[in-house]
Amino acid sequence: MSTPARLTGPGPDSDGTGGPGAPGLAPRGLPRRRRLPRLLLSRPASVISLVFLALLVLMALFAPVLTAISGHDPYAFDEDAIDPRLGGLPIGPLGGISAEHWFGVEPLNGRDIFARIAYGARFSLSIAVLATVLTVVIAVLLGTIAGYAGGVVDTVIGRVMDFLMAFPSLIFMIAILSAVPQANRMVMLITVLSLFGWPQLGRVVRAQAMSLRQREFVEAAVASGAGPFRIVFAEVIPNLSGTIIVVATLMLPQYIATEAGLSFLGVGVRPPDPSWGQMIAGAVQWSATNPMFFAIPGLFLTCTVLSCMVIGDHIQRIMARREGI
User: DSSP assignment of 57-123, as one string?
Assistant: First the structure.
């Protein structure tokens, strides 16, 4: 996997927010915690992305309620919704889209696509968010320790990061997930994604920590008698928050796409549990006769990844001109 973020950003006027007095830029008098949301809402693309992701999260959280309202279980077959004379194709136009089946049904088994999209969002977002959190925790701890401690500690942790980044990660993910038992599939996906993902953020954090340890506030903390543990957690890590936020927001869509790819290849989320990648894999053979079965999960996956990337890119540009935050 390639490093998902740049450390340097565009110039002050290239992020769409303009200079300090430009329209759409939050006034400098606002507290920093209020400026970041204000800046995020200054671009239409970010607003659209935030709205889409908010609706997606709500759909994932309330998937049981929504499927109860629609009257369809994501695992239940509906033979009345397909036509055996047509090889199991859905009854009706556009893949069986109707008032009863909002997104249509799957060929052969008649499972409701809306229900499976909603539950698929739960799996995809849960795996990606938890993997991102685990990645950030590991990378921040090890990267900060390596950058601040230096010496042998830095050498050992640095070689571990180099070793993991030298692997063709996707190939080894497929190999590992193919070899492990089927139980606790979600836990295994989170573990494997984090295992190969943390060195990317770890190297960024390490470089920033090496720079921060030469700063005056760290030297002042050392002179005041503060121990390494307190310096790392009270002085260094809080000053890495901008870098961590930028890289984490760009790792999230990477993990969503990777999970979908692994499920597409048959080593991620396994049937009968729904996954967008798994649905796309099953829809490939029907793409000519029932394109909606292929298009709907593909559209949700594309819009989700794109929305995360738009927000992450805007946050990156905002953080690159911190004097405006």
Answer: HHHHHTHHHHHHHHT--TT---GGGEEGGGTSEESSSTTT-SSSSTT-B-TTT--BHHHHHHHHHHH
Cβ atoms of residues 119 and 61 within 8 Å = no
DSSP string, 13-56: TSSSS-STTSTTSPPTTS-HHHHHHHHHTTSHHHHHHHHHHHHH
pLDDT computed for residue 14 by the predictor = 42
Residues in the chain with pLDDT values less than 50 = 1-31, 323-325
Is 9:321 a contact under the CB 8 Å cutoff?
yes
For the stretch 168-210, pLDDT in tens is: 888 999 999 988 877 788 999 999 999 999 999 999 999 988 8
pLDDT of residue 16: 43
Contact 240, 208 (CB under 8 A): yes
- β-partners of residue 41 are none
207: amino acid identity, one letter: A
What integer pLDDT is reported at residue 86 of this predicted model? 78
Pick the closest to residue 173 from 281, 298, 265 (CA basis). 265
pLDDT for residue 8 = 40
Q: Determine contact, residues 318/36, Cβ cutoff 8 Å.
A: yes
Task: Return phi, psi of residue 82, to 5°.
Answer: -125, 160
- The residues spanned by each domain of the chain are 113-324
Answer CATH for 113-324 from 1.10.3720.10, 2.60.40.10, 1.10.10.10, 3.90.226.10? 1.10.3720.10
Which residue in this structure is represented by tokens 């997606």? Answer: 56
List CB contacts of 65: < 8 A, sequence separation 6 or more: none
